[in-house]
Amino acid sequence: MSIENAASVESPLRHFHAVIPAGGVGTRLWPLSRAAAPKFLHDLTGSGSTLLRATYDRLEPLAGNRVLVVTGVAHRVAVCRQLPEVGESELVLESEPKDSGAAIGLAAAILYRRDPDTIMGSFAADHVISPDNLFQETVREAIHTAAAGKIVTIGIKPTHPSTGFGYIRTGDLLNIDDAPNAHAVVEFVEKPSEDIAKKYLETGDYVWNAGMFVAPVALMLKHLEANQPVLFAGLEEIADAWDTPERDEVTARVWPTLPKIAIDYAVAEPAAAAGDVAVVPGTFRWDDVGDFAAIGRLNNAGDVDEVTVLGEGARVFTENASGVVVSDTKRVIALIGIKDVVIVDTPDALLVTTKQHAQRVKGAVDALKASGDTDVL
Amino acid sequence: MSIENAASVESPLRHFHAVIPAGGVGTRLWPLSRAAAPKFLHDLTGSGSTLLRATYDRLEPLAGNRVLVVTGVAHRVAVCRQLPEVGESELVLESEPKDSGAAIGLAAAILYRRDPDTIMGSFAADHVISPDNLFQETVREAIHTAAAGKIVTIGIKPTHPSTGFGYIRTGDLLNIDDAPNAHAVVEFVEKPSEDIAKKYLETGDYVWNAGMFVAPVALMLKHLEANQPVLFAGLEEIADAWDTPERDEVTARVWPTLPKIAIDYAVAEPAAAAGDVAVVPGTFRWDDVGDFAAIGRLNNAGDVDEVTVLGEGARVFTENASGVVVSDTKRVIALIGIKDVVIVDTPDALLVTTKQHAQRVKGAVDALKASGDTDVL
Q: Which residues form the MannoseP isomerase/GMP-like beta-helix domain (chains A, B) (predicted)?
């Protein structure tokens, strides 16, 4: 379906503007992902595309070139190399990280000034989704739901009782035209214990909170103003100057003063309590690539025996081994008689763990930080 | 005990000359040990000395500066750096490897010409032995036994039913002065199955064949001539030229023509059949550092939690891990939740295996060789 056909004059699709927050180091993917080369700049699926590029390509059929990217100044060059289509007016550079409330709030405020009827959709730069057409169908439903006056989260049908994600408790069907699967949201719930996660699965009323949402920018700003007036005022000041020669001066002055808060607390949860949040469950495959065990799940093209190999020009020899090897060097890597191992080989740091312990990589990074070994972080 | 005191005019100790065959890549210790940097040039015990240097230092109290080193031409510079005391006349360089028969036979022939009463002692450059004084006591007994007209192997009291070593079946006590523990040798037996190894231990009659022996050079050459006349003739020709200006010319012409055979088959086994071999059991600790599991046994000074770390300036972080890390780089190595792992990190090759599978490293090297990846071998 082409953009022209999908977005008729009457369709809310023509007001859709994608926002890609490209932040987060991805500490659990150290030493591959790190401050200088965060997760979204890596090809973690063996597709040949970085996660950022794949995110853009997935959104382009919906948004055309209406894609705003929010990232750190340090990643400007890398992001522009990945996304040469993104012009300066579509690139929001953070001089310092201020959490998702400021990043997404500023995007909303800028887009509101360009078109107050904008429906924004925010999609993290470092998730893996397939197939694209199912994702796009779900986002289209979310856009139609947003046009009916909702902040719309995209939920993911749980495939197992994960304790690593927050959940969304779904309510009644909303019966919105062109959005047959849109439901009310009863509440957002934090990451549960395994017992509770199992109960969530049994009820069938819960979906994973994948952090993706679609909403009218006006409604976003209304809730932001009501719940975070200081943050809102600062973002308004920056947004007023954004498309003027004063952008740099105002941003440099105001951005560092903004409070740090996640968009979930700044907007989504209070809006849910006010009955303004809906959910469209997605049936596409979704993975936030939270650790190296995910790399094993997401890749098999490069398998050598039972070992998943990621990395261009990797030279991996295995005998009676299984697991994941991420090679960021040209070194020969030999695995002998070792099972479910995770090996990440980079020029200055080597990680060896197991799929089972992959979540604990963050602890190692914290320990390195504490010991002053920040050169490899 | 100083050499002067130990070696009275009457003592055979004054005719003792140590020989150190420094060969063998140590394939099971790849990628640390390799053609360009074989096992004997590494410090595998964290002592600060290479195995070669430690071997020399262990022999010096017995041999003084009468230590002949046999090694490959490729290792000349490295060996001289490790053993600056060894002059040119004490260095035998092999232009190509010809197995231990030629290496030790040539040493015997050279030493015979310098002193026909020489008692040679051959000790591999890449074994780990402690304590030195127990080793030296055993060698002294072996020298006295050799002086009585025997080729004397030094056996090691088995500590477990190893299937990785050959065994020596001991016979009657020989009742030699100054060698109260010298026994006859009944036979040499090949590496046994585990069941047979257990039976060997039960009888108490078997010791490990550690490949160390002490013998009159005249007796060595007599058996060599009888069993390997072609090899013997070639070695005689080279030895005749050795301390003359013709050394290089003759060696270059004859050495490549010599048959390849182990000293065990060329001399020790036929001599044993002739009743000419004795054994002195050693009670010192001996390890041939056959694989990386041995590195764990031999080291603990550098332990980080339950991980044995070998390598100057190693930067190893562990959480809930155990095993051995050999670091030949300055990279940070993080181990998380992995047990009994063996990691060998070198600039161009990385090995990850387990202590249990450490013996199978040789198979990986063979596979790399077969696939043409010889740059890292």
A: 321-368
